[in-house]
Amino acid sequence: MKSRKGYSLNRREFLQTSAMTTAGIMAAGMPLSQAIWAAEGSGGGVLRVRSYADINKLDPGFYQNAYNVDVMNCIYSKLIHYKPGSEWETELQAAEWIEQVDPTHIRFKLREGIMFTGGYGEMTAEDVKFSFERVIEHNSPVKDDWGPLDHVEVEDDYTGVIVLKSPFEPLWNVTLPYGVGHIVSKKAVLEATEDGGDFGMEPPSFSGPYVLDEWRPNQVVILKRNPEWTGPKPGFDEIRILPIGDPRTAETAYRSGDLDFTHISLSTLDEFKSDPPQDTVIEERPSLYYVYVGMNTENPKLQDINVRRAVQWAINVPQLLDVGYFGQAEVATGMVAPGLVGHREQALIPPEGDLEKAREYLREAGAEGISLRIDVLNESKFTAMAEMLQAQLGQIGITLEIDVQDPGSFWSIGMESEGDRWQEMELILQRFSMVPDPYYATTFFTCEQVGNWNWERFCNERFDELNAEAVTVQDEEERAEMYREMQDLLEESGAYRFLTHEGSPFVYRESVMTPATRPDGRPLFRFFDPV
Amino acid sequence: MPATDMTRSEGQPMREPSAWVQHWRQLCRNPLGLLGLILVVLMVGSALLANVIVPYDPAQVMVGPRLGPPTWHNLMGTDQLGRDTFSRVIMGGQVALIVALASLSAALSLGLLLGLVAGFGPRWLDNGLLLLLDSVRAFPVIIFALAVVTLLGPSLYTVVFVVAITSIPVYARVVRTQTQALRDHEYVLAERAMGASTRRILGVHIMPNVIGPLLILASMDVPLVIALEAGLSFLGMGVRPPTPSWGTILNNGYNYIQNSPWPVIAGGIPIILTTLGFTFLGEALRDIFDPKLRRDL
């Protein structure tokens, strides 16, 4: 297993490195475009990979899910990107350089010659301004990623300054290298949408090394080389992304040779290790996901905090993980994974819980013999954990009903915009994806998010204050302390019992490729290299 | 049956064995039918006596190691939560039988009633009912089931409801056709001339004549219903956990097939045997009770 190295994005260091690289190229008397082409790989072939869900949004300003960003990474460019490897670092992509002038001003210069497809011309600072500001202007569901963005000042064709209303630390860890950091063509988007709003699944122009060639819903996403691309040539000619939700099906597809790269489930990791398919490399990465049992604080049955505490204390986390992940996942102390700023050393409630205490809370609430319901996603690890939870709560006299839901119905349970089901939600077994900044976890549990992504309807003034303030704090330890307090508040509300961050094992055929992933194992397809 | 009773000649010198004995002999001459009968008796017997047979509570976790192989303590091994698979398979049979009985008897009674009304009633009622029945039949069963489950939530009742609703039109149509064939028979006309009420004609004279083929049809539908229940449970849309169902056992087994093959075997074999049993028995019964069909063959 690759070691979990501490998260350190040292901005100064990478600015120095990038400046030195640029200086080196200039000193060698080499024009930049030539230097880029010099980095070309051998190229060729088709990359066949699996995604756990089908794409449903290709507008980076409104990106919503991580699996959409996997595709966006290939078809658009952004100022900086996550560097493939086992440490959280970023490197320059569309930017020639980028620097923090002061806590609220970030100045950048674009590389020259990055072209938009479809005759929309060269990428300019005006496109950057448009791409970033439209997220706020059109009230995107992910506008929080841009936090306090005020505007972008355009200095000339290639240079601009991002101006923030207040300092925003996640900018370097999330905003720029992830979803909303992608740059789209102003002209193309305005032509397609008139007002510059969400263009959904129909990108009017591409700016990455690949273009979307074909999308057959629920079958395949085919990306092909962008003929107008002037940057470093990507490794593969074609990327075929097959949406396969069920990990077992994906494992079977890999074993039968239909896929060359896929994540596998923790429960079959041992099987893969003891009997690996030919040419296969198994890599284990610490994942950032967080899995928890949530409780709807507004549901009449769970309004009494003592009932929620009884559930919290009745849950034996290691036992749940044992059935869900075959002992391959470690107990989480909160929503922030080890190695990230704000990780807690331990949770307030011990992993094993305490049945006596749970019974006491239940007695205090006068809710003995209560029956509750839990919604779980129709996936074996979740249903197995829910059934174990049923047995655990049964020990303190709580009858737990399990409602297994398919993804379409599950992901809208707590959304007020999708109907009234949020009122009936009681317990939920939830799993959220995460990026390497604690802000991304806590920001979904504010009062403003109630009925959107905050399905437990937890609302705490102090929490919101801390959440707003922590993004502006530059001292790492001070910032970490704030996120630890926020996780304490979540746990004290009784509405959350954190379970695990899972793990992120994946397999690939070494005879076909050298993969490139983020430290948490999420693939960066544009950097995959053929063998 | 009144119609055949009238044709029987009286005072035969040689007394023939009773109808039941004849049918039994016919069945004994059909080895597949006999095998079917044995399988059905085994399945129904184990389901009826399930509470006595099971060694463990089927919902109790960690009675053995997780995904253990068969041992003397756990005859079919254990599942991913360490529950005894044998107990779950036996109780799963009970669930399958409950679903089959409940849904088919509901579908039979409603189908019979609607079919009689449509076949014997005025033309406008017949047309209206036909339109309704054909509209329901037009839905593909699985798609309809998935939609209903999404609306009502997965549970045993939903499965029963879905199966009943989708089976009613089939039975109703058979009954309607039979009723229409019988409505102009002389004994019905005679009864009518004597001033019998519609209810009496339908209940006493027509129903006994249509119910035979209907029961055979239903017995052949049992495996379909069991497969549908198992299929929905396999998709996670059937019974609620931890209720054991063969489909759920099979699905769990499939999910952990890399770890242990036993749950798949334990969940799959009863589905195969029951389906075969009911199909063989149903076909044998059809051959025995439906001489017309036999001649045609």
From TrEMBL, chain A:
<dbReference type="InterPro" id="IPR006311">
    <property type="entry name" value="TAT_signal"/>
</dbReference>
<protein>
    <submittedName>
        <fullName>Peptide ABC transporter substrate-binding protein</fullName>
    </submittedName>
</protein>
<comment type="similarity">
    <text>Belongs to the bacterial solute-binding protein 5 family.</text>
</comment>
<dbReference type="Pfam" id="PF00496">
    <property type="entry name" value="SBP_bac_5"/>
</dbReference>
<dbReference type="InterPro" id="IPR000914">
    <property type="entry name" value="SBP_5_dom"/>
</dbReference>
<keyword id="KW-0813">Transport</keyword>
<keyword id="KW-0732">Signal</keyword>
<dbReference type="InterPro" id="IPR039424">
    <property type="entry name" value="SBP_5"/>
</dbReference>
<dbReference type="InterPro" id="IPR030678">
    <property type="entry name" value="Peptide/Ni-bd"/>
</dbReference>
<feature type="domain" description="Solute-binding protein family 5">
    <location>
        <begin position="94"/>
        <end position="443"/>
    </location>
</feature>
